[in-house]
Amino acid sequence: MSQQKLTLAYLNEDDRAYGLAGMVISLASLRAIDRVVEISLDSDGPMVEFSHEFYFQGSPSISPKATWDNLVQNFHITTAMVLSNVMARSVVRMKEEAPKEIMKEIYSEVEKEGRDTCSLEDDEIENLYNNAMMHMKRLFNNPRLHPAIDEFAHIISRKRNLSGREIRDELHLLQLL
């Protein structure tokens, strides 16, 4: 299809829209779409704005285990989002496998984040990453979903910003939710 080489940086606005579409679709597949307040293709910072509950780190009335479980769950979600960003851009948009060099770079960052944020051991990080990878591969390597993913990326390009409600409505219409 295209002779462009996929990198971690976005190649153009279309590439950015596919990355954002991939992240949102991964959130829907993980049943975490309700945590999204808004998405913005034009954002200089994170393109996905989460609800306050996503960032909640705990309180004295919540057990440390519950707080840690929430932290690990959010780590799983963000890992899946990074993977889905790359997979939507490569597998769906460019019709080729995600570059191994990029996947190695992502894994390296996931390892650091898993240790620093969640104090996970290497085998726990690897297990979490592999589970997220398998889930995202099943999703983005399904050619029957590609037309709906293409359409969602075009919707994002056209509308630029979508609220959480608008995202759910669009995904429902595209039968992705």
Describe this structure in words.
It is a single chain. This protein is mainly alpha-helical. The protein has one domain (13-173): Up-down Bundle (Methane Monooxygenase Hydroxylase, Chain G, domain 1), CATH 1.20.58.760. It is 64% helix and 6% strand. The chain has seven helices and three strands; from the N terminus they run H-E-E-H-H-H-H-H-E-H. The protein has helices spanning 13-29, 52-55, 64-93, 100-118, 122-140, 146-159, 164-173, and strands at 36-40, 48-50, 161-163. It has a three-stranded antiparallel beta sheet. Strand 1 and strand 2 form a beta hairpin. Helix 1 packs across helix 6 and helix 3 (64-93) crosses helix 5 (122-140). It is globular and about 45 Å long. The mean pLDDT is 92.
Give the overall pLDDT as a whole number. 92
End-to-end gap = 28 Å
- CATH homologous superfamily label: Peptidase M41
Q: In the CATH hierarchy, what is the class? A: Mainly Alpha
Order of helices and strands: HEEHHHHHEH
Oligomer: single chain
Work out the helicity level. Answer: 55-70%
Q: Mind telling me which CATH architecture this is?
A: Up-down Bundle
CATH topology: Methane Monooxygenase Hydroxylase, Chain G, domain 1
Give the tally of structural domains.
1
Task: Flag low-confidence runs.
Answer: none
Which terms summarize this structure?
177 residues, mainly alpha, Methane Monooxygenase Hydroxylase, Chain G, domain 1, 3-stranded antiparallel sheet, 7 helices, 64% helix, globular
Topology of this structure?
Elements: H1 13-29, E1 36-40, E2 48-50, H2 52-55, H3 64-93, H4 100-118, H5 122-140, H6 146-159, E3 161-163, H7 164-173
Antiparallel strand pairs: 1-2, 1-3
